Amino acid sequence: MRIGELSRRTGVPVPTIKYYVREGLLPAGRLTSPNQASYDDAHERRLRLIRALLDVGGLKVAAIADVLAAVDDPDRSVHKVLGVATDLIVPKYADEEPDAELDAAREEVRELIARRGWLVDDGYPAAEALAAALAALERVGHGAFSSVLDAYADAAEHVARADLAYVAGRAGLDDLVESVVIGTVLGDAVFASLRRLAQADCSARVYEGDEGAETGNGRTGNDETPG
Amino acid sequence: MRIGELSRRTGVPVPTIKYYVREGLLPAGRLTSPNQASYDDAHERRLRLIRALLDVGGLKVAAIADVLAAVDDPDRSVHKVLGVATDLIVPKYADEEPDAELDAAREEVRELIARRGWLVDDGYPAAEALAAALAALERVGHGAFSSVLDAYADAAEHVARADLAYVAGRAGLDDLVESVVIGTVLGDAVFASLRRLAQADCSARVYEGDEGAETGNGRTGNDETPG
């Protein structure tokens, strides 16, 4: 198909498609004449993946390029692509200066990993990100948040098992690797939304119990003006 | 204390503190002379909260202003502040054009909410965000991800119960409201990191079982070059 048709099918404007090609996110079309290129279903699929990572996953163009390079790497393994996708999507705290809170949080993360028996190195970026988040909680007087860490870890294991089961159910390696990337990025968005819905439900039951929440209109009660 | 001392204690540069005051994030200090203002522990605490929302929560300054306004609202209720914090942190999809995928995803979310018996309105922003994420998955050929939705929802309920238990354990209303905000924003970062660690563990067990993962060095095996 021509670039105009690709644009129509995906809703991505032609100049944006050209920009993705220039940035190496999308392979160039096959030249059918000096001024015309032809695109196929693989382009369409890749374009939808880019938009999903950008719009729903909130990734930056440079991060998407790195994720796609891992997907396209002939030497990729599922475990390796999972690692790349994971590392890129974890917030970076490179300029955070080490301090007593961060040291204590790192130790807490090491203990958690040992307690859970997780087969991960404690230098893993997600372990650093977790330590940074726990240190930030400590600094704002919420070190007690650590008390819910194992409840969170239980839930994380439940989700990770579902993630891997989903990934394992995909047919080819291409599909499998893409599933890892999509599941990691979009799965965050799905979980964050579900957590908020479940919180709203809990909150309605606990804090609005006397105001009609039990009749099923928790979020539309008197003192509610959402949005 | 003077602004220099506040800067020293929190690690936030003086010009940045002045910027937060101008933007209404931080109350002005008490004037002790025409050119000098005095700051107290409440300023220090608020400043740490702003930095946590910014650095770890990834919120923009405008969103932080809205969250803090809800925290400072004299008519606030826990349920209301939870709603505001939640709405602001959920990605917005205002410019997403309705299409068949989004319509189907909204219906799926309605069914999920009914199935879980959650006391939430299906127009709740997190419900819209969930529908947008599911529609994005469908568009990239991962509509089957819906099969793990209930596993995610189980985990989300588990986390939400831990969140509310943590919030309920805080003493005063000020503290309680602040806990909701912090827990919502930083809790996302904590969970996302834990999910990645649990995924890496699952992945090491499933995909690297023959390569020494069982001896405990899953992320440091031969084909691994993380980060």
Can you characterise this structure?
2 copies of one chain form a homodimer. By secondary structure, chain A is mostly helical. Chain A folds into 2 domains: 1-56, Multidrug-efflux Transporter Regulator, Chain: A, Domain 2; 62-214, no CATH class. Chain A contains 9 helices and 2 strands, in the order H-H-E-E-H-H-H-H-H-H-H. Chain A has helices at residues 3-10, 14-22, 41-56, 61-72, 78-89, 100-116, 125-139, 149-168, 173-207; strands at 30-33, 36-38. Chain A has a two-stranded antiparallel sheet. In chain A, helix 6 (100-116) packs across helix 7 (125-139) and helix 8 runs antiparallel to helix 9 (173-207). Mean pLDDT of chain A is 79; it is low at 210-227. Chains A and B meet through helix 3, helix 5, helix 7, helix 8 and helix 9 of A and helix 3, helix 5, helix 7, helix 8 and helix 9 of B.
